[in-house]
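Justification of computing resources. Each target in the renewal requires a structure prediction run like the one illustrated here; the chain below, 427 residues long, is used simply to show the kind of job we budget for.
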Amino acid sequence: MFRKTKLKIVFTVVFSLLALMIVTLTTIYLSNRIAIRNENDEMLRTYLELYGAEEPPEGFEFGEKPEIDNGNQPTAPPDMEHGRGPLKNEPRFRLSTFYSVEFTESGEVAEIKNENNAIQSEDTLLEIASSAVKSGRESGSSGNIYYRIAKRGGRTLVAMIDGTIDDGNLRLLFRQMLIIGSAAVAVLLVVSVIIARRIVRPLEENDKKQKRFVSDAGHELKTPVAVISANSELLKRQIGENEWLSNIDYENERMSDLIKQLLSLSKAENGEIPKETLDFSKLVNGEVLPFESLAFEKGKSIASEIEDGIYAEGNGGQLKQLVSILLDNAVSHGTDDEITLSLKSERHFAVLEVANGAKVIDEDQLTHLFDRFYRADGARENTDAHYGLGLSIAQAVTEAHKGQIRAEYKNGKAVFTVKIPIKKHEN
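Resulting structure tokens:
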């Protein structure tokens, strides 16, 4: 139980960080991608304005990088300062690589400007420009090339800018953030495990104390119960049978049964059981037989369907107790005349299911059915030897055998399902 709690804490912490990291990385990547696209689109607009000017600025050739003054800043031609903002204020514009392909009205290539053949070939530029025109979009990208289309004087001009460096830097940023984020998750995983252990440790210690108390109290109570029983027997011999002694014997017997159930619960929860490979099908069938006569006395019947040859590794006594608890619960509290029991193998589990008619059980009751000393309101009217420990013992036995147990209410029936790992058996 506490192991699952630790795993839930670790999972919650790590999953939250992973979700936060994914959202953060995605947001940073997309925002930078959009910023780069917008910036490149702005520079393409400026390039198209310059391209369409009657007299291009002196000293500027489209498609080539201008000279660098003193190896630091590019030398801006005098007329460039009258261009758009990015051209006037951003040296990045003057350091970028531009290409252009111009088509005639009939779709023929009029001119390709590419002063950097070593980066992109004219065939590649022509292919990108042709695809861009066919797409019908005003702007877009193809790989690392961003483009914008303008129509002037019946001609179509496709201006392009090389974004290889920008995209490479963006990928590098994303990769570095991913590495750092993964390292942070790994560190947090270790930290969350330590924190989970510290959070759960007091609960574990408290649970151990409770189980120890139940075990110790059960053993301590056995002695006075035995003494009361012996004294009652002696009094009967001296004064004979009477109403008061009968009441003492009745309540003492109930106390003895309660102590036995507490000790059974303690033993199951503490895992104090020797295990062996046993025929689970035969065990279940053997437990059904005595309950058929008990059900018959109460006007009920048990319909069983048990698959042969199902083996499990466990303690025969405790598994018998598990089956008898479920059957006793069905016979005592079932509202229908028929109780159904089935045992079958599903994948690697033996699945035992016991169903009986029942009054409506809401979700709140279902969540508490396996709590110690819990009994539904209707069950409290009974004065028999039911103390609300039976299903708790069934759950403890199931978990001690590495299985699962659950309760459901469907189609007017209370259905209890137990799954226990199957043990392969060689004949």
